[in-house]
Amino acid sequence: MLGHITYLSDDVMGEKFGRILKNDVFQFGYGVEFEVESYLRYQGDKFADSFDANTYLLMTKALDYFDPTHHHRVSLSAALQPAQADFLVISFTSDWRFAPGRSREIVKALLDNDRSVSYAEITAAHGHDAFLMPDPHYHALVRAYMNNIRVRHEQEAGSSRRLDATDRDCRRPPT
Amino acid sequence: MIAKSRFRCHRAMGGAECQKVLDLGCGDGSLLKYLKEARNAHGYGIEIADANILACVKKNVNVIQMDLEAGLSEFEPQSFDFVILSQTLQAMHNIELVVKEILRVGKHALSPFPISATGDAAFRC
User: Fold this and answer.
1) A119 closest CB neighbour out of B58, B65, B76
2) Any bridge partners for residue B44, and if so which?
3) Residues 6 or more apart from B85 whose CB is under 8 A from it?
4) Is the interface score ipTM higher than 0.95?
5) Residues B24-60: tens digit of each pLDDT
6) Radius of gyration (Cα) for chain A, nearest Å?
7) Cβ contact B66–A141 (<8 Å)
8) Which of A13, A161, B83, B109 is the most exposed place for a label (fewest CB within 10 A)?
9) How far away is chain B from the Cα of A25, in angstroms, using its nearest Cα?
């Protein structure tokens, strides 16, 4: 359930459950007393029914092992040096799984390499799950960025078509 | 006023092409877009307002969302030919830190700011 908590945010959990008790008084037992315990137990049962627990163990290990600098024993800047792509990095203020600080490390490494990069920090209350929410600003950013990619591709396709036409013109025997 | 400031930034940058520029408080990215198209300058803008981040992305201008008042720790010393702080200095609280950071990351600094009643911009390099 620790994993599940990291998808949520402090604020949302506080707002939703706070320290609300299922009964008005402490039971001094090990059963479910707080509303948040009840919620987490319910989610835990649901997850256990839907997924093999080994999947979670495996994914947790995969996350632990993930380190883009590991194979070369270099800094993140050096590891990203071969990258040629343009980058749009977006983080969510309340995400404590992929915290904004980690994204800014990526941005710094890309800036060190003079890569084309934009970075946006979306103010959001929903923690890691914020990327699943219909946030108009976040969607507008991704839409604008993707639209620019489409325009660039169309322009490149157009110019290569024009180049092809020029090639044909050049190959045409003089009249 | 923005057009005049843009012209002055252009003029102050001299004749060299392909300069690397950092525009602090870059607004909607107009100056960087202009410098990219007119001067082939490569650069980044720094902004804090969501609406301006979106405007920059729409213009295909590289922009980093961060609070200038916290310094420029993402940037290495002397990593820019020009750092521009256009129409922004007067809105800052932590001016000393910002100016020190500008001088750290940039080889040249431009900071036009409004000074007269007509809204004209004084200019210092």
Assistant:
1) B65
2) B22
3) B24, B25, B98, B102, B109, B110, B111
4) no
5) 999 999 999 999 998 889 999 999 999 999 999 999 9
6) 25
7) no
8) A161
9) 46
